[in-house]
Each structure stands twice: as C-alpha cells, then as structure tokens.
C-alpha cells in the first residue's frame, strides 16, 4: 500500500504542530539562558575591610562618634550617651528614632548588655531594634537568663523565638545581621505579602525567612495596618543601659522579578534529518574533542568538549544552531572535498575543529 498523500492543509498543520512543540521545548520560562552574556552584570560593592564592617553602599546610622542620624520621638535631639565608640540607652530618655526612613534592608548592628547582669527575665539588658517602627528584633541578656521563648534575644518579639540561643555573656559585644523584607499592601490597604526576616545572631542563623503576622507588641496580636513603604528604625529604651555600635544598613531593591518571562521569540526551523545527519560525528582529537554531535530522529545534540552531557541544539538556520537553555552556539561549515568543520561558542569562548574520520 502506498502512503496516502497528505493534503496541503494537513501538511501545513502538521509542520505547525512540530514547530510549536520544538518552540515549547525551548522555552524554559526563564528570561536568561545559562551563562547568558546579555544578562546584566551585578554592580560592584566594596566590602568592609573586616567582617561586620560597613560595605561601600551602606548607610551608616551610628559610626561610634555621634547621634546625628537619630532623634527622640518628639523630634528633639536624641538623649542617649555616646562614649568610647558606642551609644548607650539612658533609662527614661526614651526611644531613639532614625532620621532616615527605610523599607527593605540588610542591617548589621552590634550590642551589649550590662555586666555584671542586673535583674532577671525581661528585666535584664532589654532593648530592641524596631524595623519600620513596628517589627522588633528583641535585644535582651539571654545568657543563662530564663524568659518566654518569643521574648528572648533574637526573637521577633511575641511571634517567633530564635531557632537557637546563640547569646554571649553580658558585657560582650554581640551582632545581629538581618535581612528584612517589608510588608506589601494593595492600594486599598489589603495585605499583599507579610514582612519577613532572616536573622543571624553572632553569625548563627536564628530566624530563617520568618513571616510576621503583624506588628510585634507586648500582650498584643495586632493585624497589619497599611503603612508607608519607608519608615524609621527605632531603638527601644527599656530602662536598661544597653549599648549599640557599628550600626549600618543597606537599602535593598525589590526582589528580582525579571528572572521569568518570555524570551525574545526566535523562529524555529525544522531541518530535514538528512541535513542533520551530515553533521554527526566527533570534532577534534578524541582525547580533546571540541564537540561530539549525535542525532535522534529530527533532533540534533551536541556534547561540548566530549564531557558526556549532550545538549539539544535548536536550528537557527540549516548550519547554525543554539544550545537548549544555555548561551551557546554551534555553526557548521561544509565545503566540497573537505571534512565538515564546527565552530562552538560557549559563553563567549570559541573553539573550532574539523570532524575526525
Ligand atoms: Mg525589647
């Protein structure tokens, strides 16, 4: 029985389906290919000379010398004392408020509680760092000092206890490194996404992307109320002489949103298997192959540098192919009387070789 001739309309439909399938296979939903040279390069930040020191793009809120970045709640000058490179709560002087406002930030701060320790539970070395005036990371002397779990040092007060107690003894300098993501609200005031915090206490992970269910408060379980996108830091005066130093923040951009999304669409060609077959083989010496080309039906694969990991090739023309998902191209040159030649470019590194017999 002879094969039925395909009607032209059906043939067009079939070819369209093949092309659409190939196109779907190529689209990972990611904007960038692996090792894509078009992908924007990260900007340069000069890190601090020592761990914990402010990097070049940090906003230093306390450099050990002045309270210029802070005020009292009522806007009058901050009444805490500055001495020997630290600032210290003056019991009864009230909280201090940063003049600048922030949303998403990375924070580094160092603090120490009085030594010898005085009082117990919440009444021992208590202060706190409020992000956006609403979300407190507790500061407390939690070294051999019992209190409720969601109120000890590095707790997100009243909500999340730290994963572990990494406290140092009173009088020693301790550090917080925090990544804070502010809550997002819709125009009508509905919560779109809650605030989140990741906290390292003395270098130990104690809050792992913890989600806050509202402002942190004593005895309260308050819901979110829409607030500004940028608000001040507040340092708590809890009637204990707690010290702070080396306090800096890095405002953070929104989380990247351009990772996903359609790539620039490319015409997808269907190259006849007979043409693809001409490219099959090993290019370059067997101990140092530039590429091994194989074919499965109408699909062509490249094993760059003969590493045993074939990658599908997508034809951009009959001689030029893109790597699947990766920033790579393979181009074939066929001249009469000569073995085929391949030029492989992977992330800007180009190698060329003839096919070995
Ligand atoms: Mg507190």
Features of this protein?
8-stranded antiparallel β-sheet; mainly beta; elongated; 2 helices; 23 strands; single chain; binds magnesium ion; 357 residues
Which CATH class of the largest domain is shown? Mainly Beta
Q: What structural class do you assign from the helix and strand content?
A: mainly beta
Beta-strand residue fraction: 25-35%
Domain count, please report it. 2
Q: Please report the number of helical segments.
A: 2
Q: Approximately how much helix is present in the residues?
A: under 10%
- Straight-line N-to-C gap: 40 Å
Looking at the overall shape, the CATH architecture of the largest domain is: Sandwich
Give the C-alpha Rg: 31 Å
List the uncertain runs: 1-6, 8-26
Tell me, what's the shape? elongated
Going by CATH, what is the homologous superfamily of the largest domain?
Answer: Exo-inulinase, domain 1
The biggest sheet, with number of strands, parallel, antiparallel or mixed sense and barrel status, is: 8 strands, antiparallel
Write down the overall mean pLDDT.
89
Number of strands: 23
> Helix-strand pattern, N to C?
HEEEEEEEEEEEEEEEHEEEEEEEE
């Amino acid at each position: 029985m002879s094969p039925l001739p395909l009607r032209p309309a059906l043939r067009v439909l079939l070819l369209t389906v093949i092309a659409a399938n190939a196109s779907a296979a190529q689209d990972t939903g990611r904007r960038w290919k692996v090792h894509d040279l078009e992908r924007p390069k990260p900007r340069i930040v000069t890190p601090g000379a020592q761990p914990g020191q402010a990097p070049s793009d940090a906003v230093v809120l306390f450099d050990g010398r002045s309270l210029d970045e802070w005020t009292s709640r009522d806007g009058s000058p901050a009444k805490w004392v500055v001495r020997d490179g630290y600032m210290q709560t003056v019991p009864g002087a009230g909280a201090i408020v940063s003049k600048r406002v922030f949303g998403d930030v990375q924070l580094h701060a160092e603090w120490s509680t009085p030594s010898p320790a005085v009082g117990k539970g919440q009444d021992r070395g208590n202060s706190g760092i409020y992000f956006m005036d609403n979300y407190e990371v507790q500061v407390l002397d939690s070294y051999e000092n019992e209190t409720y779990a969601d109120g000890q040092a590095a707790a997100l007060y009243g909500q999340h206890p730290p994963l572990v107690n990494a406290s140092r003894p009173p009088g020693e300098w301790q550090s917080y490194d925090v990544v804070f993501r502010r809550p997002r609200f819709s125009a009508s005031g509905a919560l779109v996404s809650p605030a989140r915090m990741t906290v390292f206490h003395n270098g130990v992970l104690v809050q792992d992307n913890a989600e806050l269910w509202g402002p942190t408060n004593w005895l309260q379980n308050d819901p979110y109320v829409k607030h500004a996108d940028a608000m001040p830091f507040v340092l708590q005066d809890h009637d204990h002489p707690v010290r702070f130093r080396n306090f800096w923040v890095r405002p953070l951009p929104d989380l990247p949103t351009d990772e996903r999304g359609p790539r620039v669409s490319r015409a997808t060609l269907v190259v006849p298997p007979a043409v693809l077959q001409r490219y099959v083989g090993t290019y370059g010496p067997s101990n140092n192959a530039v590429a091994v080309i194989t074919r499965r039906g109408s699909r062509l694969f490249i094993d760059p540098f003969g590493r045993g990991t074939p990658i599908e090739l997508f034809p951009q023309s009959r001689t030029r192919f893109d790597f699947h998902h990766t920033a790579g191209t393979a181009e074939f040159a066929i001249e009469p009387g000569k073995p085929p030649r391949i030029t492989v470019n992977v992330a800007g590194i180009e190698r060329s070789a003839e096919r070995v017999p």
